[in-house]
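User: Run a structure prediction on this.
Assistant: Running it now.
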Amino acid sequence: MKQLTGRVAVITGGASGIGRGMAEAFAAQGMKLVIADIEESALAPAVAELRASGAEAIGVRCDVTNPKSVAELAERALAQHGAVHVVCNNAGVAGASGVGALWELPLADWEWVLGVNTWGVVHGVRAFMPILAQQPEAHVVNTASLAGTIASGGIYGVSKHACVAISEALYRECQLRAPQVGVSVLCPGWVNTRILESERNRPEAPRPAPSGAAPASEFAAQREVIMGLLKSGLAPRRVGEIVVEALRANRFYVFTHPHWSYMMKARFDAILNDGVPPTVAPPPGESWEPPKAQ
């Protein structure tokens, strides 16, 4: 996009984490913000803090798993500003009732994670693309994950691969039907967010671990490791700044950890060489910054 100042951005999952980071970075560019989130206790303070920093922002409670709720978000944004220029389908969750194989996890886990991470993107595209297509320039940013580009596991990995596929399909269709609408898929690595605490926004109480799942002690140990990696990760505001750069450059694939591309290469090498899904992971605590040339 050539012009960001004065443009209207809608961000789902915008009250915390990466969404909040994008809101702060967009506000620094003079954009008007519509912050959507299901967590009302976080939404009001986030909007108040953004306003205190000088941003023009409103908050809208939205459940991205519900198409009616997302449609109402679009209506509210139009009523407030008369237009929408950037839509960030960012709301996302990670977590399950326990650690287990895909066939062991409760169907409720599948429904919840795919409902937010996959259907949330679908509902956002369906609600906002007719609006964006009317603008002289606009952009969609779908938040996937590095897990959506590598041989990742779990329901979360499945959902993020779907987000990448949706984004690629949307890009091709926009080229044919609405070439003034740019599309980006954000694929972050470790970022310092509370995504492992997603259960706080789950519509029903967490269920007990399924039969055959890993013991609670193993689940807790794995969770502790991941929590440490997240805390050492990139600041959400920096992710927002990377998204701003991508908007200006009209870049499709947006990686926060570009030097981890060897993990994607391992997967595609396996595909091209009739191999099997490789297990590759970044070193714990590795900086997001690419290594400097020697």
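The mean pLDDT is 88.
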